C-alpha cells in the first residue's frame, strides 16, 4: 500500500511498488480486475513484494507483522513523476507502509495543487510537525491517536482531547476510529461520536483500510463529512463480519 489518487466519480489510481514475483503479479492482476488504474504501479526485480503475517484472536482483533520489501523502495522520484495523476485527483489518500519521505513528498505535492489529503497514520510512527498543516483529514485509530498525542483514548472526552491536540498541530479535520463505538469526528462545526451498528466481529484486519477507502469515495462523490463518516462506518462494519483483508472489503452495491 502507498498512495491512492481518487478521481471525482470514484476512479482510483494506485501508486505503489511491488516485487517482480508471484505475489506482485497476483496483486497487479487483482487490481486490474477491480478496475484500478495500475499505470503508476512499478515492479522491482530486486525486492520481494511486501507481505504481512496476520494473527486474529477470538474477539476478532488482529496483530500484524509486516515485511515491507518493495514498499520501502518506492521513492520520492516516483511521486514527483506522478504529476498528472495528482492533478486529475480529487482526493489523495496516503498511509505509512512506505518510507516517510515518500509520504511527505506526496502530501506536499497534493497540498501544493490544492488537493484534499487524507492521511491514515498506520502503522503508527513519529511524524514531522510540518506534515500536519498539509492534511485535510487524519484518521488515526485509538492506539495511533495516543501515539501521536500522548492522550489515551478510552471514550468521547479523551477522544476530544486527542483530536484537539491534532487540531492544534494544524490538521483541519480529525476522525478517530473507535472500533465498535463508531468514530469521533472533530471539525470546526461538529465534535462528537458518530455511532456504528453492533455486529458479531470475526476479523478486524481490513477495518481501517476499508474505512479510509470508503471515506474517500464518499467525499469524492460530494457527501458532507458527517455523511461520509457514516458511509465509511457501514463499509467497515461489513468488513469486520468477514475473514481476510482484501477479500473482506465490500463492494459499493453492498452498501
Give an overview in words.
With 255 residues, the protein is an alpha/beta fold. It has eight helices and eleven strands. The strands form three sheets. Strands 3-2-1-6-7-8 form a six-stranded mixed beta sheet, sandwiched between helices. The two termini are 24 Å apart.
In which order are the strands of the major sheet placed?
3-2-1-6-7-8
Task: Show unreliable segments.
Answer: none
> What proportion strand?
15-25%
How would the global form be characterised? globular
Number of strands: 11
The share of residues in helices is 25-40%
Order of helices and strands: EEHEEEHHEHEEHHEEEHH
* Main sheet record: 6 strands, mixed
Per DSSP, the total helix count is 8
Distance between the termini: 24 Å
Mean pLDDT: 93
Q: What structural class do helix, strand and pairing data support?
A: alpha/beta
Radius of gyration: 17 Å
Indicate the topology.
Elements: E1 3-7, E2 12-19, H1 22-33, E3 41-44, E4 51-56, E5 62-67, H2 76-80, H3 83-88, E6 89-95, H4 100-112, E7 116-120, E8 137-138, H5 142-149, H6 156-169, E9 174-177, E10 182-186, E11 191-195, H7 207-220, H8 225-239
Parallel strand pairs: 2-3, 6-7, 7-8
Antiparallel strand pairs: 1-2, 1-6, 4-5, 9-10, 10-11
Amino acid at each position: 500500500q502507498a498512495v491512492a489518487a481518487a478521481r471525482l466519480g470514484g476512479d482510483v489510481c494506485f501508486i505503489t511498488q511491488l516485487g517482480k514475483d508471484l505475489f506482485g503479479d497476483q496483486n497487479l492482476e487483482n487490481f486490474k480486475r477491480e478496475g484500478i488504474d495500475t499505470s503508476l504501479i512499478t515492479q522491482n526485480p530486486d525486492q520481494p513484494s511486501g507481505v504481512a503475517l496476520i494473527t486474529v484472536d477470538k474477539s476478532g482483533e488482529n496483530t500484524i507483522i509486516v515485511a515491507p520489501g518493495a514498499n520501502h523502495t518506492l521513492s520520492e522520484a516516483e511521486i514527483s513523476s506522478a504529476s498528472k495523476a495528482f492533478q486529475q485527483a480529487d482526493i489523495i489518500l496516503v498511509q505509512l507502509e512506505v518510507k516517510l519521505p515518500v509520504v511527505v513528498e506526496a502530501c506536499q505535492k497534493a497540498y501544493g495543487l490544492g488537493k484534499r489529503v487524507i492521511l491514515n497514520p498506520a502503522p503508527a510512527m513519529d511524524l514531522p510537525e510540518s506534515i500536519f498543516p498539509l492534511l485535510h483529514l487524519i484518521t488515526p485509530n485509538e492506539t495511533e491517536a495516543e501515539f501521536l498525542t500522548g492522550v489515551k483514548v478510552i471514550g468521547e472526552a479523551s477522544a476530544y482531547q486527542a483530536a484537539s491536540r491534532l487540531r492544534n498541530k494544524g490538521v483541519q479535520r480529525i476522525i478517530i476510529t473507535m472500533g465498535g463505538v463508531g468514530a469521533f469526528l472533530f471539525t470546526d462545526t461538529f465534535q462528537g461520536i458518530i455511532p456504528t451498528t453492533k455486529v458479531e466481529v470475526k476479523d478486524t484486519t481490513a477495518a481501517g483500510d476499508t474505512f479510509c477507502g470508503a471515506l474517500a469515495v464518499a467525499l469524492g462523490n460530494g457527501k458532507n463529512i458527517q455523511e461520509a463518516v457514516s458511509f465509511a462506518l457501514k463499509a467497515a462494519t461489513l468488513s469486520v463480519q468477514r475473514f481476510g483483508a482484501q477479500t473482506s472489503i465490500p463492494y459499493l452495491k453492498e452498501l
